[in-house]
Write a structure and sequence with these properties.
0% strand; mainly alpha; 160 residues
Amino acid sequence: MRFSSPIVYNSGLSSCILRLSYAIQTGKDEALCSELLVKLAGLIPRTEIDTAQRTNNKLVQRAKEMMFGSIDHVLKLDDLCREFGLSKYQFIRAFKSHTGISPYQFFLNCKVEHAKQAIERTKDVYAAVTEYGFVDLTHLNRHFKIMFGITAYEYMSQLN
């Protein structure tokens, strides 16, 4: 299912998803989780779902693979545009129409996901900050909380 715009722009839907995710991750009562799931299911029909065929699927998929594989160094927009023979504006427009977010936001999300995986492996948020190029823990926490509803430090604390 694809939404016509990123769910972060729908505060009710994004808030409900984050609350449900947090309740599940922290082992809250099953009744609360069920209640949140029912509320989420009720919000989805009121959300515009984009069923139109997306264009440039192969281009965007390849760009996403390149960005996900290039976390250790910043993949420049010019390099991506040159790879696909598009202007910056054409590339950004195609990417955003397919994913709902900018190439930069996707790259940042990839960094946060890699940092999350590093935290799971090492149980060290500071190593993840350094390894994935965040300025400091606050920078990682800000983006981590947007994606997962809790800070990286809170996430690490929940790991066994």
